[in-house]
Design goal:
Elements (H helix, E strand, L loop, with lengths): L17 H11 L6 E2 L16 H11 L15 H12 L4 H4 L3 E7 H16 L9 E5 L4 H8 L5 E5 L1 E2 L4 E2 L1 H10 L5 E5 L12 H13 L3 E6 L9 H4 L1 H8 L4 E6 L11 E7 L3 H18 L6 H11 L1 H32 L6 H5 L4 E3 L4 H11 L1 E2 L5 E3 L8 H14 L6
Parallel strand pairs: 1-12, 3-4, 3-7, 7-8, 8-9
Antiparallel strand pairs: 2-10, 5-6, 9-10, 11-13
The chain binds 4'-deoxy-4'-aminopyridoxal-5'-phosphate (PMP).
4'-deoxy-4'-aminopyridoxal-5'-phosphate (PMP) binds next to α5.
Length: 417
């Protein structure tokens, strides 16, 4: 019998996805003192995953609700969820909502919302140009490039964002790069809690960014993965988005409810769209439905129903606000505590960015060799960019972390390697 080789025997082994690989390495490490600072998920004061109490109580009601069943949702998802999510980002006084030119379609979390946006824009935005440019910050969430690449965007460019020397926003570089893009480029903006740097523009800086986008007629796509999680107040965290609405832009918001509801594996997201007129929105929605139908037919119900119930019911809404305040307060406390400990240790350099940065992540400024030292010698797992998830720190491990960081900074510098 002749053996026919597999039709896939030429398939190359793909490299592992860094953040998942880091988690596997952490799990395989038997050291007692190990810490995982790679994971982009909230951990409570004991380092454990946290199911938000508001989610627990809504789920308990759902289990006993005879009116619920497992019928398919509409292609564009649970209407109550899409409406509530869209209102959450645009605000209850949004003109675009009142004028029926804003609406949403449910998506498979933030990633899915970005992917839907990319698929739709590839087919229907600026189609007379051979290759529309999509631009995202340098650095950005690693998946932005992959999402737009797989949707067929070949011209993907970075705009300057991070001033490594001063550990802050490079506003001048950002504006210059956005001005240099061709007119009507697609520009990805992090609505708040920029991942990975933890550095957001101020309101005044957002105004300048909006002015440049207006001048060049760019199409903004907001990635909103941390609304409420950053400051503890969902309205404050949506300021940038709402400013762009007031400026009269057409734009998209790719919303994730992974972090702010702790619903990571339920894949709850919304693609909110603001357009100039209701007809454009209706027609665009009809095309998005065809795209969804061809990809996964319709989205899952559970998480979307939890979020819709929480956002539409005043007492649950209050409880959700309490829960997000709990999460953001714990993160802020860890920032403060780490900053104080580094001061006491006398760690060389300025560590103010630890307290000035916002949201889940901190860009520590550690170089690659120092990060390697942390992983290999100290069993502290962090991205090689020096990004740490503040959620991985607790009262129980922060002393060890601060001491290890101090050693990394004082013992390791790249020249020695
Ligand atoms: N955007 C950013 C900036 C993120 O950090 C994340 C999660 N790490 C996402 C989008 C998407 O996450 P999810 O698909 O879980 O909603």
């Amino acid at each position: 019998m002749t053996t026919v080789p597999s039709a896939f025997n030429q398939v190359e082994q793909a490299p592992p996805v860094a953040v998942f690989k880091l988690k596997d390495d952490y799990t395989a490490d038997s050291a007692e003192e190990k810490i995982n600072l790679g994971v982009g998920a909230y951990r409570d004061a004991n380092g454990q995953p946290w199911v938000l109490p508001v989610v627990r109580s809504i789920e308990a009601q759902m289990i006993n609700d005879p009116a619920l069943n497992h019928e398919y949702l509409p292609i564009s998802g649970l209407p109550a969820f899409c409406q509530a999510a869209t209102k959450l980002c645009l605000g209850s006084d949004s003109k675009a909502i009142t004028e029926n030119r804003a609406g949403g379609v449910q998506a498979l979390s933030g990633t899915g919302a970005l992917r839907l946006a990319a698929e739709f824009l590839k087919r229907f935005y600026n189609t007379h140009v051979e290759s529309t440019v999509v631009s995202y910050p340098d650095p950005t969430w690693a998946n932005h490039d992959a999402i737009f690449r797989y949707a067929g965007f070949t011209d993907r460019r970075k705009y300057r964002y991070w001033d490594a020397k001063n550990r802050c926003l490079d506003l001048a570089g950002l504006k210059e790069d956005l001005l240099q893009l061709p007119e009507v480029s697609i520009v990805i903006l992090h609505a708040c809690a920029h991942n990975p740097t933890g550095v957001d523009p101020t309101q005044e800086q957002w105004k300048e960014i909006a002015d440049v986008c207006k001048q060049k007629n760019h199409f903004p796509v907001f990635d909103s993965a941390y609304q409420g999680f950053a400051t503890g107040d969902p309205d404050v965290d949506a300021w940038s988005i709402r400013h762009f609405e007031k400026c009269g832009f057409e734009f998209f918001v790719c919303q994730s409810f992974s972090k702010n509801f702790g619903l990571y594996n339920e894949r709850v997201g919304n693609l909110a769209m603001v357009m100039k007129d209701p007809d454009s929105l209706t027609r665009s929605r009809s095309q998005l439905e065809l795209i969804i139908r061809g990809m996964y037919s319709n989205p899952p119900n559970h998480g979307a129903r939890v979020v819709a119930t929480a956002l539409c019911n005043p007492s649950s809404l209050g409880e959700w606000h309490d829960n997000i305040r709990t999460m953001s307060a714990r993160i802020k406390q860890m920032r403060k505590s780490l900053h104080e400990k580094l001061k006491i240790l006398g760690t060389p350099g300025n560590w103010d960015h630890i307290v000035n940065q916002i949201g889940m992540f901190s860009y520590t400024g550690l170089n690659q060799a120092q990060c390697e030292f942390m992983v290999k010698q100290k069993h502290i797992y962090l991205m090689k960019s020096g990004r740490i998830s503040m959620c991985g720190l607790t009262e129980g491990n922060i002393d060890y972390f601060a001491q290890s960081l101090h050693e990394a900074v004082t013992k390791i510098n790249e020249n020695k390697l």
